[in-house]
């Protein structure tokens, strides 16, 4: 049995929407269908969460926006899954197309260390306890691996690429307080495969 409840095809600049069952008290709404995710899809997910906050639906308890998704928790004694989906479809019609979405935000300036003792300790702990042959661990750090994986000439170029743009916190999750960042200038994107297995 498929977890997909229904889908809505992209239209008027809005992304494709897929509604999935997420247990008996939640609906997972997925926006778009491509990886990597662009800012417009993430903005649409956040705009949907904001619209629900501004126009509450009776029985919807909580929403959690993700990179390109929205997890909607509801009370099944108050509202059924079909009505949750219908309310979300109505809500999506009221959201402007992603190119014109404006989200409340704030700018933070934080210090950054690319190769510090705490990071080296975490990398070394991973190498010792999880995977001694991890390809992304080079000389006790993962910076040189990232430099090579992204086709950069050296560490300085790596730092310059990251620092030449501002980064949007697309969502906070996976681990408490862990931001998932997207560059406002897509040319500054840094990519790398996840640790396999993931760090715990």
From TrEMBL:
The keyword Iron does not apply. InterPro entries: CT_C_D (IPR003833), Cyclophilin-like_dom_sf (IPR029000), PxpB (IPR010016). Pfam families: CT_C_D (PF02682). Residues 17-199 form the Carboxyltransferase domain. It comes from the Bacteria. Keywords: ATP-binding, Hydrolase, Nucleotide-binding. This is Carboxyltransferase domain-containing protein. It comes from Amycolatopsis dongchuanensis. The lineage of its organism: Bacteria, Bacillati, Actinomycetota, Actinomycetes, Pseudonocardiales.
């Amino acid at each position: 049995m498929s977890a997909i409840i229904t889908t809505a095809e992209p239209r008027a600049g809005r992304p494709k929407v897929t509604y999935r069952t997420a247990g008996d008290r939640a609906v997972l709404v997925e926006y778009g269908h491509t990886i990597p995710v662009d800012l417009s899809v993430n903005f649409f997910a956040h705009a949907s969460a904001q619209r629900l906050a501004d126009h509450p639906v009776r029985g919807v308890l909580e929403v959690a926006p993700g990179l390109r998704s929205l997890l909607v928790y509801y009370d099944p004694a108050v509202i059924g899954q079909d009505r949750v989906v219908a309310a979300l479809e109505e809500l999506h019609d009221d959201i402007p197309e992603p190119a014109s979405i404006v989200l409340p935000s704030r700018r933070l300036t934080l210090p950054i260390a690319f190769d510090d003792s705490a990071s080296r300790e975490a990398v070394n702990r991973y190498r010792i306890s999880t995977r001694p042959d991890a390809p992304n661990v080079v000389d006790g750090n993962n910076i040189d691996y990232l430099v090579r994986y992204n086709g950069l000439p050296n560490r300085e170029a790596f730092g310059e690429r990251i620092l030449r743009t501002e980064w949007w916190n697309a969502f906070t999750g996976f681990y408490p307080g862990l931001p998932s960042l997207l560059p406002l200038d897509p040319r500054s994107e840094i990519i790398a495969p996840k640790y396999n297995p993931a760090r715990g």
